[in-house]
Fold each of these.
Amino acid sequence: MANNTTHTTEYRVLARVLLVLMFLTFLTISVTSYHLAAFGVTVALLIAGTKGFLVLTYFMHLKYESLLLRILVSMVFVLYAVIILITFIDYAYR
Amino acid sequence: MDQTKQEPYVSYLEHKGKYTGIRSWIFTLDHKRIGLLYMYAIMVLFFVGAIMGLLMRIELLKPGETIMKPQTYNGLFTVHGIIMIFMVVIPGLSVVFGNFFLPILIGAKDVAFPKLNRFSWWVYIAGCILAILSQFLKNGPPDTGWSFYAPYSTTTGTNVIMATFAAFVLGFSSILTGLNFIVTIHQMRAPGMKFMNMPLFSWAIYATAWTQLLATPIVGITLLMLIAERLFGIGFFNPNLGGDPVLFQHLFWIYSHPAVYIMILPALGVITEIIPTFCQKKIYGYKAIAFSSLAIAGVGFLVWGHHMFTSGMSNQARWFFSLLTFLVAVPSAIKVFNWLATMYKGSIDLKPPFLYALSFIFLFTIGGTTGLLLGSVATNVQVHDTAFVVAHFHYIIFGGMGFAFFGAIHYWLPKMYGRMYNFKRATIAWAIIFVGFNLLYFPQFILGIEGVPRRYFDYLPQFQPLEVISSVGGFILITGLIMMVYNLVQGARKGEIAPANPWHGSTLEWQIPSPPSLENFDEAPVVKSNPYDYE
């Protein structure tokens, strides 16, 4: 049910998360200069997934939400991961 | 709070708000009025799409050119598909009856975000206008089919960009509605109403809303990629530019197969409401039906590849998708068996809503079982892209969602307008629609098995008898539809005043006056038991 309490995240924490996000963006661009072949997509997805996790957890306050809501959001991640995995079954064996 | 002063009852239709006249509708925040606005738009668009379908059937009355050129036929089936899929059946039951009845069924005054709800309606209308404009602008209507398959859609000179952008805009409306419904169900339930006390239509809308929220962004970005490819020559899908056309099909069907469940899940919910009411019996297998909605939504996300068995996918992917497709039949069958078990020894009352529910089961079962032929790789290859697929699809979507929509409107019209329609006329219209529907689509199963391709303007002379039967069915069907709509409009405007609970239903909407007041309930209802408590 509803979690009506409010939470304030310290600016220091938000600033750190922002720095990490900027670093990960830089990393996304940098890894394209390495020839990782089929793993290029995997690395890009892992970095993007980590960024999404940080945004949801800190900027969207998921950290302070109920367990049910966190499970529901986690299942969305799992669903997208499964969809991507299934798509790559085709690409891997074609 | 002073409880002695009771506000006089005023229905939502008579309520005087900030605005009057047409503005009281365009700027309304009332979920019931927004539901009606969607319904009026969808009914108009449905008849436009149906007339296009009828024109195609006239063209196919005899081999060769009958009333239109081949390119006109290409445009017509594309526009028919775009209107029917993106503007009628995807929003369909969810936005009309979900908007109107979801808050009432869970004991709420409105949806969680009324302004977002109104915004979703405006976005929907904007998308519809864009889609309709794309048919009339200089380069002519898109001729790709509603699926916009690349690489043809990246090269054709017709108005593909505007049509795909319209679908993108319509998708936003769908996402926002889904989000609104999820929050409404989580946060707005009446005191005491746990998830396991919710009416099953609410469960169906809940499962649908998740699918809307999670699947629609995928097609949104895919259509933007298509637009980017056309405008800037980026090689996403066109092999000449280094792209992969099968990638388009993957991305398109990752959305568009779950979209079938966006269409059909609320329909399954409607039937689950109608059956216990007209059998005056507690629903059999409440939990199984509730969880089967979630299972259909969940597994339905993973079966898209069966649309692509002949597109050059790997063999491993084919058998994997085939297996998952067979799995999705299980929760669908759970619902059908539970409906039948509910009817067993019930006090069955063959009123029009129940007739539509019965015909839904019949037609949906034909659609579902022929779907298994398409889920099996070997038979799929035989009938892929033939009239068989057209028949299967229409049995699921029209025989399923369409008949459920008609059942829903016959079921809830007395609550929505406070008036009753003519039963005899409704029953005759149902019979005509049922006969016309089967005459129209069943021959297409046979034509498909015999190898007649879909989306073809012409055919070999030996197929004419079945094509003629199909076209005659089209005329019968449209006659029944006109009769049904006439009866409903007459009923809503001039019908007898309906009692608050004409069907002796047990869910919350039947416990309040007809039509409901602006805020639905004078006091928040307290729910303590299963919604289908007939014993």
Amino acid sequence: MAGLGCLTATVLGVIAGVLRLSPNWLVRKLMAGYVEAFRNVPVLIWILIIFTVMTAVMPAPSAFRGDNATSSMLLGAVAFTNRGVYVPSPVWGPGSMVVVLTFLASIAGMFYYRHYATRLLYDTGRLLPMGWPSLVILFVPSLIIFFVMGQPITLDYPSLQGFNFAGGLHIRGSLIALWFALAIYTGAFIAENVRAGIQAVSKGQTEAAAALGMRPNRIMNLVILPQALRVIIPPLISQYLNLTKNSSLAIAVGYMDVTGTLGGITLNQTGRAIECVLLLMLFYLAISLGISAVMNLYNNSIKLKER
Amino acid sequence: MSRNTPAFVRSRMLPESPPPVADTGAIRWLRENLFSSVGNTILTLVSAYVVVRILFWAAPWFFNGIWDSPSLSACREMLDGRTGACFAVLTERWNQLLYGFKYPSELYWRPTLAFVLLFVAIAPVLFIKYLPRQMLVFTGLYPFIAYWLIWGGSVTVPVFALVGVLAGAVVYRRVLTVSAGVAVLAGIIAAMVVWWAAGRVTASMEGVFALEPVASRDMGGFMINLMLGVICVSLSLPFGILLALGRRSSMPIIKWICVMFIEFIRGVPLITLLFVANVVLAYFLPPGTNFDLILRVIIMITMFASAYIAEVIRGGLAALPRGQYEAADSLGLDYAQAMQFVILPQALKISIPGIVNVAVGLFKDTTLVSIISIFDIVGMIRGPILASTEWNGVYWELYGFAALLFFITCYGISQYSQWLERQLQTDHR
């Protein structure tokens, strides 16, 4: 749960943070509005608002029934209902292992290619294209194997049976509410960190890179972001920790995470308040310390090496 | 070819012509800010589309809003199929949203007055340069006045509490020349003695200047959020300073106790601490004592906030150059004096933005108390209002209202802190 949230929040936050500094006035103001709106309103209210969207605004499964149904499935595959979202789930047939292994191998291959291209650039000055070959290496072998093996992975589409959808993968509304709310909320904070980090890189760096004739895209990727990263990472760690701790708000929308089971059900059933709450606290303490240990390792590895 | 007679030389200056239209005013601004390149133009068009869509979706909803109706079904009848909000729920239930559903309605003026006085009390702290220092006396008195106004009861309780604090302060001043540690202890003991003595006396003076008492379980709504926010932040400041100093102390036991406390509190979510307040804290109290829930929650949130504030202040302390500590030592100041006159004023100034951040975050986190069944504004919305037969199904108006209240407060605080930062910036940039 927290992992999903962290990932989405980081992507959102970096995009919003970079866009807040864009030369485009409208985009800048839009992003400022997003950041201020989400930073200044409690996350609990956002969770409840998105949960309301998921439960009260989405149509009931019965709305999908009949010839003149009021709702239809997105692309015929994804159903948004007030009982959650139904998406197709993969069915792993015999031989699917080979496809998965090929895919993993192509990921390794892609990194090797990028590494090789960079080495070539530094050693000989020859510039190999990076973008499309990586994509080709990533997807083509897996696709070939997929068809050679006779399409072992199929999708199980959700379909209306009885009063509800059956088949496919059921994602609860509460999970989506929690995930989106936490991601968007934390994303707003991360956007501010990213902005501060980018602004901390002195303007001379941008100008120097521009004087070397780099394109704005490259300036951002090769000059600004690597330097800004050093400023961004420490507050990012604490944002991840906050997100993990905020995920305990799952209890507010009835998603049974550890707070709901240990702090709710177990406590009510056994009546041993001290033990349950202590266990719960130790659980979060362990996770928090774990995350901060891992992130500190990462931080040390990218820190400016000083003597 | 003669060089002396060029074919044409302008002998008069041309009159100045205005810059081209495309390079001035609104058009130039548009070109520079919105349409400077292809990518930028696409971005502009996309975001303009998003804004227009949102406006077209929200505007009829807002302007068709019904402000006066007894229930949601009546509201829908009035709207007659059009899109529109039902703000009537706000006009009808505003008192519940702000004060909770059990606070006696004829007494609403008391928390409102306390709220207004809060601004009077906090102004001299916020704008210390522009307002006379004498107003700080009122800031000191404010907690007791606010307690009397909100909870009611005999005026003797807050008065004797104030006397106790004053007695403690006087004793502290007297003993300070001997030793700082002894002075703190003596001050606390003096205050305790006064309170103990006062407890004997007040029982017989229950009716003196009494306002009608209100139990804290009868309070709710946004009032609870504000109360928790203000009380916990102001209480956690001194505790946070003590914890930060303790963490930097050279005495290992004190240092390790502070480190353990801070890291433990920072490692667990506030919700688990509220569970502690709800179900566990009673185990640690002597049997027979019965704290009310609000007080227990205040204790836990204060602990939570002071751990975070301690970390912020520790950052401020660490940012001070070592020379400041050494200078204070070489002046012959002892630890308490060095801290009071040299270190803390500078360290606190550095940590103001961080403290404001913690305060805003904490204020937002006060909504979590709705999970342990205190009817704050979120609790009121989810509980009595959405569960009532009249208003079951009104979501956007209520959550939007709550979000708006928090937005106004938090945005105001953050704007103030940015202003203060500019004021305090003594270095040149």
Amino acid sequence: MKRSFSWSSIIVLSVICLVMSGLLAVVNGITAPVIKKAEDAKANGALAEVLPGGTGFEELDISEYTLPSSITGVYRADGGHVFKTSVTGYSSGLQIMIGVNGAGEVTGTKVLSSSETLGAENTYGATTVGQTVATIDGLDTVAGATKTSTAFRQAVKDSLNASIILGGGTVDLRTPEEILKDSIAEVLPAAAGKDFEKVFLVEDLGEIKNVYKVGTDGYVVEFDGAYAGISNDGTVGVNNTTLSSDKLSAVPAILEASVLTDVDISGLEISDKITSVQKTASGNYVFMLKASGFGINGDAEYGISGLPIIVKTSVSADGVILDCLTVEQHESDGIGSVCENADYYSKYAGRTEGTLDDIQIAGATYTANGYRTAVSKVFEAVRKLKEAGK
Amino acid sequence: MDKNSKLSVVTKGFLKENPVFVLVLGTCPTIAVTTGLVGAVSMGLAATAVLICSNLVISLLRNIIPDKVRIPCFIVIIAGFVTLVQMLMHAYLPDLYELLGIYLALITVNCIILGRAEMFASKNRPLDSVLDGLGMGLGFTIALICMALIREVFGKGQIWGVDIPFLKDHTIGFLTKSPGGFLVFGLLIALSTVIAAKQGKPAPKLGCAQCPQAGICRSAGVTDDDCAKTEGGND
């Protein structure tokens, strides 16, 4: 009796266990995929937010790729990539997550952390949606929040480039300075690794707009992004440009022969923005200008700092700007101070009296207006200098 | 059973034999999840679902399950249903699942469920067992709601997670902590006893009958009086 009783206990308990296990297995079969999906969605919520429709996100090991330095993390999905970026805007630590689809378009952005002051990063992202690597440079920055929006745009550009790299493509990740350095080393091997300086052009070299002098080794000229190396004796090294060797070999002699003489401007009715004038033997003029900056618009007093922007510019006798350089500025850091970047002042080269209007600085209208107003005074001065036989 | 007695099977759990305030079962989750109404209602309903299902199955199997292994059998059945509710909640009500946390799994060892299985379902017909499960479950839920209402309104200054003007700025934080929970618990037990007394229904002296272990004690020759001399506890 006792024995059979024990057997039945074991059997009943076992059967109950089996039935309940079976029931749980069935329910688990139904709920497990739902739970997994919900957990994935939760984990990837932020990722899917910037890459709508992206599924199966997996984090990639970025050390396996050469990506722009602002990229701190990459997630690959079926629909494209999501990049975590870290850039410095007005202050450091602007972290943005950027989605790029398979077609190389920005699908969304999300600011993960920010110490920016104006909040431009929260609205600028929307304007980057749909941009590609070809169009991103043309995207305007936000006036008044130039640093933030420029950093944001750089993060987006880096992500677009990284997307190309991850897709098997190649992208030149070098900065303009690195490209210049590498190009100089290529066309003038003796100059590799040496310091060089941009020559302020006071002579008209025709198509040549940029000349770099590398110590005593010679010159490198740039024309439309291509470079040629010229030794001091006029020997043309590597010439990647379409410029003729004759023209190139003449460059050192022209530059070395150029001598500036001071011009007396007392008694001449020229703008008081012009502080001094020099002249070359070939008849070109070099002006030192003081331009109004931020705070006062255009042709008025100097900026909030009370100090002018000092500009040096050379103009040919027939009124074409040969070169322009910002010598000194006291404009708002990150906004008007852009005027000291070669990107900005080099835009003046080649311009004439009627073609200055489009030279602007986004977010620093006063600085740009003051700068442009000062430069515009040189054309009248050239005419008056010539009339006076100076 | 006629209709009236069937109704009384359901309603007895509300006050007369309220599992929390009268039978003093399931104190652990009662204190833990009653800091907010959302948690209280969902815990109550989850426990009710488990109670109904386990009572039904245990009642159906009451003539098959050998006496000696009935407790393990009950536990397996109850644990099965709890896990089932847990999985369904995790899948379809993930927010509630996270809110209830470990206390959801602990429904398995909630004395109310094991107690009803032992006291009622294993001795009654399936329909009555289901009604008992429903009544006791709702009684448990009502008790949790009463506790949560007091603790959330006065402890957090909220009701169902929504801020109450004035109270929000004058909260009694102590109520949201466990000691505060015990205080409210004690007050409500007193209140339910007073109400029962006023209705002329003194709290039933259930003695050892309410205890899931009663059967084991009795088969070992321990009487109710012996049991009363020892310090017993629930949960």
Amino acid sequence: MLELLGEHIEKQGCGKVAEKKLLGWREIPIGAMNDRPGSSAEYHIGAWRTFRPVVDHEKCTRCGLCWIYCPDAAMQPREDGYYEPNLDYCKGCGICANSCPVGAIEMVSEVR
Amino acid sequence: MAVQVQQKRTALTGNYAVAEAVKLADVDVIAAYPITPQTTIVEKLAEYVADGIIDAEYIPVESEHSAISACLGASLAGARTFTATASQGLALMHEILFITSVLRAPVVMAIANRSLSAPLSIWNDHSDSMAERDTGWIQIWAANAQEVFDSVLQAYRIAEDRDVLLPVMVNLDGYILSHTVEPVLVPEKKLVEEYLPPKPLWNRLSVKTAYTLGVVGPPEYYFEMKYQAIDAIERSRSKIKEADEVYGEMFGRSYGVMEHHFMDDAEVALIAMGSVAETAYTAIKRWRERGAKVGFVRIRVFRPFPAEELRDLLKGLKVIGILDRATSPGSLGGPAFAEVSTIFVNERQRPLVKNYIAGLGGRDVPFSGFDYMIQRLLEAAEKEEVDVLCEYVGLRE
């Protein structure tokens, strides 16, 4: 079971966070403060995900609503105009699938 | 202390003494909501702001929760802030108090101590601030209007010290101190400016920096962030002493983290806090005159708790009596009792301890009450035994 969990965590990218050296209390800026702007990009919330969005390009009209609605800016346009989730940041909330007017996004379970 | 400075002897209530000190401290932001018996502090400050005597923003908020939140935000933007409250108002601030200390905002707040409902009571005891003793704030408890005034100024110096950066609450007993007129020596503003840290303070909300304040502390980081504030209150110990000593040099008055008398040959001692300690002192003095070896201790700084100072002072005593004007229902005794008792927990030779709970909800503690407490301490010393650990003095059967 533990092995399975470990494999799952590794697949989700959680391992990347765990590998980073955690700072001691003397090394952190005081006052629950983060002094590095944009550093949330380093935090891969994709590890929380239990469902991932899978885009069907046959149905997709490239309207961009999924991109507008995604609360984590994880849904991003590719060069050909189709949208794909960045799985480092997609936490699988399903808002993209819900907002897609043509039903082109399916939420697929991560646990198979 | 022979300090020659111009100080105006002024008749002030404890509350007006707070307002006077805040005026001299040149605060930038005052956010407050009225509550008895604190109201006249912020009423006076509102008047000063309206009359242009203080150049500050006065934010009349809709609750105490907002008052402390506004002070927190303003403080993070580098403003010197002030608020005051009591009782239910302090309880309503509760969650923000933890945030203020860990965010390291040097807010100064006066508490005109009042009991908590129910039953509804506007009268004095120490329940309100005692319930906030674990919020990470520094707590100073004054015994008279002069000390109230002096403590507010000391509070700003302690809070804003770059090695501390913690909020400080100055406690004054509701009515007994808040509404009683006493002579207070008020120094000139120029000297106060010299005593207080220079402005501007650290502005963490400046557009030049892009800090995120009050971040999420996931399990990997919460512990470390919380510990920083624990470390800061430990480091505040030397700064509190320094602020008091420098104040003494400049203005001729210093108090220490505790006050004590008749301790050299004492066999028993009574510990109290706040204005009731002055009655305790007079009662103990009378027993001294009759030859009883009773000592007097008043704890002035309750957070950080002066454990080492008290251990040095109290070791060798036969019995220590601790008077609490607050309760911790279901516990062995009141909060001050619990705190003092732990000082000796690892010592083989230790004094016996005894708790008195009195003066709840504004009930007076008269000399007869203190006579009883002292008599019971002497009895316990003689028998080398404490028969009742916690006694409720002045409670009707």
